[in-house]
């Protein structure tokens, strides 16, 4: 079989593309040494939070500060933070890194304890985090990617300050 100049150019181009695809896939497998759970940020790095919505409260950015709105119109028994505490909560969510769980975690996916929904600048779809609990541990499920992160009770109480953890601990 004899190939002309255009034919050999096409062979070289396609062989280079195949080599690029193979090398691109191999470097991900060769240099990925994290066989166990890894520490991952909860929210994307450099994300800009516009709103944080819990089941009963909504925290939204107003200029450079934050405002909280009670969604149930019931003032008694709810977490009533100051503007400074709201900023600290948002910073906590942005800086928190948790251990990613690789193995399947046994919890009831139909019954989350609590939900946190984030609207981020530049994102068309909100980020939804579901809080779950098994016998001894708390888990955070990121809804869109199905990523499961483990957290202790202290970190869960910091991230979900309006949730009554005494109800979940009695179950």
Protein architecture, described:
- The protein is elongated.
- The chain folds into 2 domains: 1-33; 39-169, no CATH class.
- A hairpin with a 6-residue loop joins strand 6 (114-120) and strand 7.
- The protein has 4 helices and 9 strands.
- The longest helix has 26 residues, at 5-30.
- The mean pLDDT is 82.
- Helix content is 30%, strand content 28%.
Report the principal-axis shape. Answer: elongated
Distance between the termini: 75 Å
List unreliable stretches of 5+ residues.
none
Strand content: 25-35%
Task: Compute the number of helices.
Answer: 4
What's the mean pLDDT score? 82
Gyration radius over CA:
23 Å
Structural class: alpha+beta
Largest sheet: 9 strands, antiparallel
- Helix and strand string, N-terminal first? HEEEEHEEEEEHH
Counted up, domains total 2
Strands, count:
9
The helix content, as a percent range, equals 25-40%
Strand order of the largest sheet: 1-5-9-8-7-6-2-3-4
């Amino acid at each position: 079989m004899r190939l002309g100049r255009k034919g050999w150019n096409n062979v070289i181009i396609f062989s280079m593309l195949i080599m690029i695809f193979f090398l691109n896939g191999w470097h991900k497998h060769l240099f990925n040494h994290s066989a166990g759970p890894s520490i991952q940020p909860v929210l994307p790095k450099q994300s800009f939070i516009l709103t944080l919505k819990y089941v009963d409260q909504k925290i939204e950015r107003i200029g450079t500060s934050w405002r909280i709105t009670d969604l149930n119109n019931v003032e008694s028994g709810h977490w009533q933070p100051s503007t400074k505490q709201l900023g600290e909560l948002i910073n906590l969510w942005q800086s928190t890194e948790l251990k990613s769980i690789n193995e399947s975690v046994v919890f009831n996916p139909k019954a989350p304890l609590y939900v946190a929904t984030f609207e981020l600048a530049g994102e068309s779809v909100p980020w939804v985090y579901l809080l779950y609990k098994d016998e001894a541990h708390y888990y955070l499920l990121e809804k869109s990617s199905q990523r499961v992160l483990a957290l202790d009770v202290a970190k869960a109480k910091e991230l979900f300050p309006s949730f009554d953890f005494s109800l979940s601990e009695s179950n």
